Amino acid sequence: MQSFEDIYRKESDAVYSYIRILVKDHQLAEDLTQETFVKAYRSLNRWRQESALRTWLISIARNTAIDYLRRKQPLQYVLLETGIQISGGHSPEDKTIASESLEEVERDIQRLKRTQRECLLLRRVYGFSIKETAKILGWKEGRVKVTLQRAVKQLSSYGLMREEGTDHETFK
Fold it and tell me: How much is the CA Rg of the chain, to the nearest whole Å?
């Protein structure tokens, strides 16, 4: 078993990135990442090694972020739960990193339902298996597959509308 310090070094960036997407605030994401690792440390003896360590940590991160939003930022929690996004608000740091096409893709992803967005993020960005994604989200594997399929179909339709010059904002 690796030391907890090694676990933190190896997994903290992935946990932070996941939380940052959920809360959209750098400082808050850092705070919730720390809280996630404190919770993980306290419950390390309860981790069943049947799931990957990263899967377990992302589950804790997800619950920590959602609990925080539910308590402290109910409006943002409702937006997260429903998949509704308020446009704008990218930091200068984000603007310098992201190209115009990446920003379009990000906007499209943000327009997905929360469940589709989370599922897509866990599978395509973090590379979790269907089984691991289902475990993190507390779903059956079939639901993960269907949700992913719908997310990809929805993203494709956004891209097609953009190619045709149609503003997908008019189809809300």
Answer: 17
